[in-house]
Amino acid sequence: MKKFVAMSLVAVAFTIITVKATEAREYKIGFIGPMSGGAAQLGQQMKRGAKLYMKLHKDQLGKHTIKMIVRDSKRPGGPIAKAAAQELITREKVELITGLIFSPNAMSVAPLVNKSKTPVVIMNAGTTFIPNMSPHMVRVSFTMWQAGVIIGEHAASNLNCKTAVAGYTNYPPGKDSINAFRHGFEGKGGKVVDEIPMGGPGKVPDFTPFFQRAKSKKPNCLYVFVPAGNHAAAVAKTYQALAMRKAGIRLIGPGDITQDTQLQGMGSAAVGLVTAHHYHMFLKSAENQAFVKAWKAEYGANNPPDFVGVGGYDGMAAVYAAIRAANGSKLTSAIAMKALKGWKFESPRGPIMIDPETRDIIQNIYISIVRKKGGMLVQETQKTFKAVKDKCKELKLGKCGKKLY
Ligand code: PHB
């Protein structure tokens, strides 16, 4: 009899737990991004992507809902983002943090979530080392080493570049980016003849003195990493103003310098620019065409998506996958990481997967060229590299932005 009562109690408790787990629940998530200041356009794109995913996939969470609490990181440096994350964790009691355009912002959040064990889905920040800083982080965007190595190899092997100058915004993803470029370029026989730090990620500098220094070295190629946004537009303009193409110097880089939302404003300066990246809005897949159509229907024909928007969209798909796994119970890091390690998704950028070992993104990288068609600038894919992992982690090169050579 005692045994029977005990077994019944276990059964009742089990029923209560399962019923509780399937009750409708609101998941509070924190979204950190630049919503004001010079990089506000990036924050807005990321948020637009996240919101579009939510709108198009309402039914995916069943009866559960999401409350997204947006916090403005204002500047690329860490302190404001760190304070925002602290407040989201302790006061708002969010169960997940997402967003994060700039690497120093993402880096500043890592020690906090290591204490609170809050899962993080990174929608943009590209410094290769970031997911190593916390076992609670996954990255759905890109790593600087993915595009950097591939454009470096391509420049040496196919663009007739024997020498290159590398200019970079002087903060962690910039250092990663030129190391990656050098790895790819010199691995295929090229020579980087100068590396030029070009100011920080905040204020857009006057690129003229940096590009003049590059021009004086007479390289075949000028490789440039700057963060997307108004830095990218200024790069193409300075390249044009200094007549560098006429001087026989080809401008190349990761796709941050041909961000779709900046492209039309670059004018003829951008024509012929070759980049490597994981997304541009002209990709021909059915998924991308449907995505671009839905985006323009939501935000207007003159507000196209770009890789930052796709980061927000795919990041939210990952957040949904984590919430579905929690299925009404608290969204712990253990549940989120289990759901997201090895997570696969048919993204507008192509198939993506989170590497279960590194918690970093595996995705296609496209070599593209900018052309003018019907009065518009478009990006044309020339080559596709499938399922690219982060080379720096694969080769175990350590902190990928430190001087490696
Ligand atoms: C970064 O800070 O990691 C970052 C920001 C903008 C980009 C790329 C990387 O376009």
Which helices and strands appear, and what pairs or packs with what?
Blueprint lengths: L1 H20 L4 E8 L6 H17 L8 E8 L5 H13 L5 E4 L3 H14 L3 E3 L14 E3 L4 H15 L4 E6 L3 H16 L3 E7 L10 H9 L4 E5 L4 H12 L8 E5 L5 H7 L7 E4 L8 H14 L7 H20 L6 H8 L3 E4 L2 E5 L6 E13 L2 E13 L2 H4 L11
Parallel strand pairs: 1-2, 1-3, 3-4, 4-5, 6-7, 6-8, 8-9, 9-10
Antiparallel strand pairs: 10-13, 11-12, 12-13, 13-14
Helix pairs in contact: 2-11, 3-4, 5-6, 8-9, 11-12
The protein binds P-hydroxybenzoic acid.
Summarize the structure.
The chain is of the alpha/beta class and 405 residues long. 42% of the residues lie in helices and 22% in strands. Residues 14-19 have low confidence and may be disordered.
How does this structure look, described?
The chain has 405 residues and is α/β, with parallel strands linked by helices. It has two domains: 12-142 and 285-359, Response regulator (Rossmann fold, 3-Layer(aba) Sandwich), CATH 3.40.50; 144-277 and 364-401, Response regulator (Rossmann fold, 3-Layer(aba) Sandwich). Helix content is 42%, strand content 22%. It has helices at residues 2-21, 40-56, 78-90, 103-116, 144-158, 172-187, 208-216, 230-241, 260-266, 286-299, 307-326, 333-340, 391-394, and strands spanning 26-33, 65-72, 96-99, 120-122, 137-139, 163-168, 191-197, 221-225, 250-254, 274-277, 344-347, 350-354, 361-373, 376-388. The longest helix has 20 residues, at 2-21. 52% of the residues are buried. Residues 14-19 have low confidence and may be disordered. The structure holds P-hydroxybenzoic acid. Residues 101-103, 124-127, 173, 227-228, 256 line the site of P-hydroxybenzoic acid.
